[in-house]
Design brief:
- The protein is of the alpha+beta class.
- It has one domain: Beta-lactamase Inhibitory Protein, Chain:B, domain 1 (2-Layer Sandwich).
- It is built from 2 helices and 4 strands.
- The chain has a 4-stranded antiparallel sheet with strand order 1-2-3-4, with no helix packed on it.
- The chain is globular, with a radius of gyration of 16 Å.
- The chain starts with a helix and ends with a strand.
- About 9% of the residues have low confidence.
């Protein structure tokens, strides 16, 4: 097996693992101080992402939004990671 094929298989396996690892029900357990990697492994990629440098500041603040979904069907979850760590978690009931 050539190295390109091995890398492709490894990437595919990681993607499949990440998809299986993501659990919508885990959103309520996300808390300040968690790393971005921990969040991605627990609940997957956000449905929406934005980044703000605050008028040219060197430290960029991100906003990750997870829309309501089966298993967490009435809650919009918003995370603010900065420098690789979650600094704010907001869960809003939406109807």
């Amino acid at each position: 097996m050539n190295s390109t094929l091995k890398l492709s298989v490894l990437c595919l396996a990681f993607t499949a693992f990440a998809a299986l690892a993501a659990d919508v029900g885990e959103r309520r357990f996300i808390q300040d101080g968690m790393s971005e990697g921990q969040v991605l492994m627990k609940i997957g990629k956000p449905d929406s992402e934005s980044e703000d440098s605050g008028g040219g500041a060197k430290i960029k603040e991100k906003t990750w939004v997870y829309f309501p979904a089966p298993g967490d069907s009435q809650t919009l979850t918003t995370l603010v990671p900065r420098e690789g760590k979650v600094i704010r978690v907001t869960r809003t009931v939406s109807r």
